[in-house]
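Subject: Re: docking follow-up (zinc ion)

Dear J.,

Thanks for your patience while I sorted out the input files. As discussed at Tuesday's group meeting, I've set up the holo structure prediction with zinc ion included as the bound ligand rather than trying to dock it afterwards. The sequence and the ligand SMILES I used are pasted below, so you can double-check that they match what you have on your end before we go further.
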Amino acid sequence: MNLIPLPAFSDNYIWLLHHNGRALVVDPGDAQPVLDALTRLELVLDLILVTHHHMDHVGGVPALTAATGATVYGPAKDTMPPGVMAMGQGDEVSWQGADFQVIDIPGHTAGHIAFFGQPPGMTPVLFCGDTLFSGGCGRLFEGTPAQMLHSLDQLAALPGTTQVCCAHEYTLSNLKFARHIEPSNLDLSAYESHCQNLRAQGLPTLPSNLGLELKINPFLRSRQPSVRSSLQHCAPSPVDDADFFAALRLWKNDYR
Ligand SMILES: [Zn+2]
Ligand SMILES: [Zn+2]
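The structure tokens for the complex came back this morning:
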């Protein structure tokens, strides 16, 4: 089983998983990078998984289904192109001996879902779209901070070895903010140097892994004293978990 990020647009990744000449892709905002990869690697596309309704995640779906006849699974609670099979919490998608569980993770959009599975011979993989990024999380376009915190808590409970397949290369800018929040986090500074080296070579920083994200991602660490002390001065003064998370997300929105 092979897992490859296909670059698309300026900073998207379309994740491609393939085995024995068969393939699945996740969030094909553009059909062309997928069609090129199918030709190059001599693959048949069986399946398309979609995490949410934004065009940079679904834009290539009609052209890909027309070209390949692939089956498409997407969120039941987001508006999808015609022909997409609706999935929600507790549903499963089986492909090539792997069962992918669907997890509802609203916040970035109202219907955002993730796919989590352990393909044979691989460490577990999580396709989390625009909800969890390396060192960050998605903007709250359609959900509340409490919803997003709950969604991230569900992802944080997955096995630490999980490969985190995010849909955007936002890592370096996320880590700059993370370092501002937790200047004394040594795991964070080591990871930032590692990612700077990768980007200098034109390589993706992804997939990340969940155990690492729990050590460095402030949005998974909003209950840690080191993160809370940075947020203490925010107005209005944060009181509960959702307040601290909201203050963190709000700060990141305007951070340059
Ligand atoms: Zn999005
Ligand atoms: Zn996106």
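A couple of observations from a first look. The first helix runs from residue 32 to 41. Residues 52, 54, 108, 130 surround zinc ion (ligand 1) (CB under 6 Å).

Let me know if you'd like me to rerun anything.

Best regards,
T.
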